Structures are given as C-alpha cells and as structure tokens.
Amino acid sequence: xxxxxxxxxxxxxxxxxxxxxxxxxxxxxxxxxxxxxxLGTGAALSEADLDVRAGEVVGIVGETGSGKTTLARATxxxxxxxxxxxxxxxxxxxxxxxxxxxxxRRSGQVQLVFQDPLRSLDPDLTVADVVREPLDIARTxxxxxxxxxxxxxxxxxxxxxxxxxxxxxxxxxxxQRQRVSIARAISTRPRxxxxxxxxxxxxxxxxxxxxxxxxxxxxxxxLAVIIIAHDLSSLAxxxxxxxxxxxxRIVEQGPIRAVLEQPAHPYTALLAASAPxxxxxxxxxxxxxxxxxQPAAAGRAWPSDGVCVFAQRCxxxxxxxxxxxxxxxxxxxxxxxxxxxxxxxxxxxxxxxHEQPTRESA
Amino acid sequence: xxxxxxxxxxxTLEVSGLQVSVGDHLVAVQDVSFSIGRxxxxxxxxxxxxxKTLTCRAVLGLLPxxxxxxxxxxxxxxxxxxxxxxxxxxSAWDRVRGLRLGAVFQxxxxxxxxxxxxxxxxxxxxxxxxxxxxxxxxxxxxxxxAEVGLRDPDAVFHQYPHQLSGGMLQRVLIAIAxxxxxxxxxxxxxxxxxxxxxxxxxxxxxxxxxxxxxxxLLLVTHDLAVVAETCERILVMxxxxxxxxxxxxxxxxxxxxxxxxxxxxxxxIGDWQxxxxxxxxxxxxxxxxxxPGCRFAPRCVFAxxxxxxxPVDLTDLGQDRAARCVLVEQPTAQAPTKKVxx
Lengths: 362, 342
Prior knowledge:
Chain A is α/β, with parallel strands linked by helices. Chain A has helices spanning about 5-15, 70-75, 100-105, 115-120, 125-140, 145-155, 160-165, 175-185, 205-220, 255-260, 265-275, and strands at about 20-30, 45-50, 55-60, 85-90, 90, 110-115, 190-195, 225-230, 240-245, 250-255, 330, 335-340.
C-alpha cells in the first residue's frame, strides 16, 4: 500500500505503468445498424478512447445523453459494443460472451454507484443485506468472512456497523444512504469503481463528504475511480484527469487543472464559463462569458452525417468542421487531447467587445 | 428581517413572522420575515430540510395537506392592490395564483400534461385567466415562446412535452408562469436538474424577464453560487429559520453567521488545488426538533453555553443586513473568521 503522497506523485506522472482500464475506439449503439459500415441513428458512444490507472480519479462530464452512462454500462458488461475494445487488466471484456461475461460481472471487479440511493437500493433490504448481496453473488467468501467484510466495508465508508447494520434505506439520511451504496460497491473489493453522478442528489456538505470518501478509498484500496458529473466544477477538488463528452464523443481530455483553466475545445470552454461561482469577482475581467462562446445567429445548416458533433452550437465552426475531427494531442501540452479543428486558434478569434448577449439558444 | 424595506420602493411581497408546521404540530418554519421590492431578485438558500421550499409553498398557498400556517402574514402587492394571502379563500386564490404569482419548479415535465401540446397548455392559461380568444391566445403563445428563447416557436407550439428537452420544457413553464404578467415569479430549484450550460441560459432568461417586465423574483435554491450570480439580496435558511440576510455581495464577501461561512466553505468547490474538501460536521436538525437556543449550535465551531440558553433573535446589523448569532450582538466583537473544515 502506498501513501497518499506517493499515489499523487504517480498520478502526476501518469505515463508509467499500464492502465487498468483501456478503452479503445469504443462505439455503442442502442439501435444496431443494418450495415456494419455506419453506426445508425442510435449511436450513443462513438470511437471513445480512455485510459484509467489504479489509484487515479478520472472525471467524466457532459450533458444528458452525451454517452457518459453508456460508457459505464459498457464497461461493466451491460451493453455490448458495436466496435472497439474495453481492456480491463489486460483482458478485452467487450468481447466476453455468455458464461465468461457472467463470470466477469459476478466477480465484482468493476462496480457501479448510482445517483439516487433511495431509488437504487432495495427498500426492503437492511443495510447489511444490501452490502452483503454482491458477496453472495461473487461466492468467493464463506459466511463468516462475508459478515466481516460487510462490517469492514461499512467502517471504510465511515459508518458504524453496529448502528446501521439493521436499518432500512429510508431510515438513513441522504449522505448516509450514498455511503451505504458505496459500501455495497466496495464490498467485493473491486479494482474499478464507476460512480454515476454520485453527488448530484446530495446537499453541498454531504456532497463534499462523499467526494472526500472516494478520494480516501482510492488511496486506501488502490482503487481506480471514475466519477460521472454534469458539471466541471464539482470534479475540481477531486479528479486528476477529466474527459469531456458531447453527443457520444469525447471532445477533450486531460489533467483537470489544464482543462478547467485553458480549455482546448469550445464546448469545454462553454461548460467552464457557464458554471456559477461564489468567488467570481476577482478574476471577472479574464473570465470568458457564455455569450462569447455561442454562435451569433441561427447559423448554417450542417449536413447530418460526419459533421463535427459540436458544429451546430460552435461560434468558430467553418468548412473544415463538416468532417468530425479525431481526438488528437493538443500541441505543446502534454497529456491533453482535443477533437477540434481550431483547438489552437479559436481563442484568437474571440470577440472580446461582445458586451450584450445577442441571443440565447434553446 | 428586522430592517425595513426602502419606503420609496414599491413592495411586491411582505412576509412577516411566518410559522409553518407540518404533520403532528412539528414547527418546520419559524419566525420568517422578509420583503421583496418591485423588480428585485431575492435568493432563498438552504440545505434540504431547511424550510425554504415550505416557505415558498406557503407564499403560493400550496402547502402539503399536512402543513398549515400557524401564524404570520404574507402580503402581496402594495397600496390598492394589496392582498393578504394567508386570509384568502379558494376562489380568491384563483385570481392570485397564475395571475399575480407565477411559479416554476425543479422537474418541468411533471408539471405539464403529457397528452396535450405545450402550445395548447400555454394558450389554455391565456384563455382562462386572460379571457383571450382562441386565435389571440395562439398568437400570444407563439410570441411568449419566442420571448423565452425557444427557437422556432411556431413549431414548438404544436409539440408534446416528450418531444422537448429539459431546458426547453423549463422555458415552456417559464412562458406559462409569466404569461399573465405576474408581479412575482417564484423559482424553486428551477435550474437544479439542468446541466450548467442550460442553467446559465435559464438564469440569463430570468434576468432579462426581470428587466423587461419589472418582475420580482424569489429564487429558492441549495446552490449559493446560483444566488451569487442572480440575486441582489440573499436569505440564508437553516433549520426552519432565516439565519442571515442582506445584499448578496456584502453577505458573500463578509458573512456574519457561522453557517453562512461554513456554507461558503463547502460551496467554493471549483478549486482544483484543494484535495480535501470542506464539510460541515453533523446533520441539520429534523423538522420540528425542539432546541432551546441556536439551531446551528451543535455543528458550530464557535458555539458556547450562551448559544443554547435561550432563543437567538435575528440581529439588525444595519445596511440592510441581519444575522441570527450571539456573536454578532456585541458591536465591538470581531466577526468569527476561522474556517470550518473537517
């Protein structure tokens, strides 16, 4: 077990060691195409590339329907990819079928935590039952070991096993419930924890409690953690890297600080500019405003196929954008990738005198 | 609030000494007083269970069946238009709600009829409340849809709720809420479920409607940052009471109540350098939980015996500010500045 400090310095380097999760060219479609050549209209995820290492927290942001949850579902083997691979600890779990897929799912190496524990926890099961269930399914421990593991897991998330073991989900506060669902997720000692909006339903103080807990678990258990969020700012204090999703594509990824402070993709810039802030007054002048990042008029009609996913809403879109750009490294910036033809130049074209918001888009 | 509103300003809403109980005489909101001037935007901030939603439901006359106003006055309008809302009967409510009071809530889809087009639902409001003809109502509906920033309003008129995104539905609800030119719009967590880009757009829309219609706004939210961006004045609620109030900028620059300070500590999360995020230890009191003194005392790092001996009143600090804390009572005492962290 490494110390917190060592894990962080490893994270800072991020180039050493092979990733625990390595997603390559992953495409998922909910309405499979008839011809293998196109993805059809149900494409939920297109050509996603993502690496996650042990001890790392990776954030995923994007609006509703941008493919965040689809990536989670594909990684735990709930949906079958159309193309691409999902490498987990050296094995392609995307190609697992039948008995092998079931064995992988039941092993509990990858676990999910959901947004609303009141809806995702069985209301008739006690906390102990809820936490033990994945162990009963994995069948790797005997009865006594399972009981011990349940108590261990509850202690790890900061709950007193004696006090909460026999309670029902509705008898707990929102923050406690979310901690129970995390205890359930870590009871099988997974290597990767996929948290789907774990704090969106929580109050601010409970939100920070849960985020701190996830940060602690990744060091104590050497977990890789992926946190899905719908805004960048709630990842700022916790994630090492972030991947920004838009309409089923990763449009930018890189270290959180770089992505937040110097977004390379106009959509990331719009996300960062739109986030409300309590402490905004000091750097007001340097900050981009959402109006600067929205197209001035209704814009041109883009073809439906092959066009950049963000072109419709992008003020910098031009002829080249009829071809979806690939996710490529950002020049002069290590560890950053962006899928934008004008990633290096759009800042120069910003309209700094743009005082009045001309339009709001629906 | 103890400070009086500017006598020159027209008053839209005045709430004084409001107490709301739920269930078996559990006092969930107590001693809540505030006023909203014409065109003013006021943010009501608090965690879940702080009583912010019950307060705004009381103003709307939409308390849950188990809830009741024990005492207090809620007055809408000024001078000749003044209406005492707590005394209204049901038929009189129909001439206030929708016409003089508009409201939008967190989940727009659940406030619209899924089997009717959104245009139909807006036009119906105009025909019933405004007595417009079918043709005029249609025409005005399309105008309103354009005004709230819906692209292609003619097409939107004929669409069903399921065909629109969450952000578009919230615009539809805002169009319905402002269709009869209300004096006050209450937005209860209206942007909470939306992604940040859409949230910023909806907040910009609310700002614009205030400017163009002279609309007053009561924004109820758990997100301090949303209030910081949108509201001129802020009311911080905790455990059913207002614990601090004042102009947003001053309150956030120099919060007087330890809870406001703690809330700011946990809200300023957008700092990539911070590894350990602030938390407020403990849990807020349950609704109706009886406590002799300050309701925040069990979680407060500055708490002393003085805090729990008797009720703590809201202290007028001048310049339209007030705080409910024993530490602010002495004019010479320095405001507590220590950061709460865990």
